[in-house]
Amino acid sequence: MFDYKGKVALVTGASGGIGKVYARELAAKGCHVILVARSKDKLETLAEELSSTYGIRTFAMPADLTITGTTQLLAKQIGELDLHVNILINNAGFGTHGRFEEISSEREQEMINLNVASLVDMTHQFLPYMQQQKNGIIVNVASLGAFQSIPYMATYAATKAFVLSFTESLFAENRHLGVRVLALCPGTTKTEFFDVIGTTEMPGGINGTPESVVKAGFRGIQKGRSYIIDGTSNYWLAQSTRFLTRKFTAIMTERLTRPASFPALGKLK
Predict the structure, then answer these.
(1) What domain count does the chain have?
(2) Where are the coiled-coil regions (predicted)?
(3) Model-wide pTM > 0.90
């Protein structure tokens, strides 16, 4: 059983959704919390709430992780406060939606920087200390989309497939070093994510909650899992791809995710 009390937890994307709930639950377990997101006002409000409610230390650190070099600057600021991160929740991320050629290349690159590059660099910054202490937790928020392609969210799904593969590798590397590494894979979740991508047209609707996702994350760490999927139906959906060809899965997913506003594309082969 991991002892959370007195540990320092860093949560990215902490201003709302899954990140905010993660920060609150870690504070409730007695962790001091470093909150990272772009919104200074939201972070400071949350920091004050958590500090007064749970009697822990909080640190609001506004930062744009899409910008190269931000993670190194963040690590330097944390070091100057004489803090050592014991728990890292790499939650920050966003998606894009639409036909690939119609999505801004700049926007796609920002997404890759945030979903992939900053997550890898944050892990580089804080994993060595955990290894030295032979104790620590890293949770990388992936997605149900990590298990298959998602037409009209092609680059997003690819970034999350990277996160899953990367995390499972680190899990194996660190399993005897006292550091627990988990890929947390939510399905569709009621957060601001779908406001950012500009659609709520998802097969089966948007049913998960940040609370259920975070609960799954703690359960995955407790059980020593390399990955965990939020929700039984989501789990079986991910496993179903093992019994179907990748081509068939991609074509069927395209039919399910094609926006109603898009014209029919004719017979698919």
Answers:
(1) 1
(2) none
(3) no
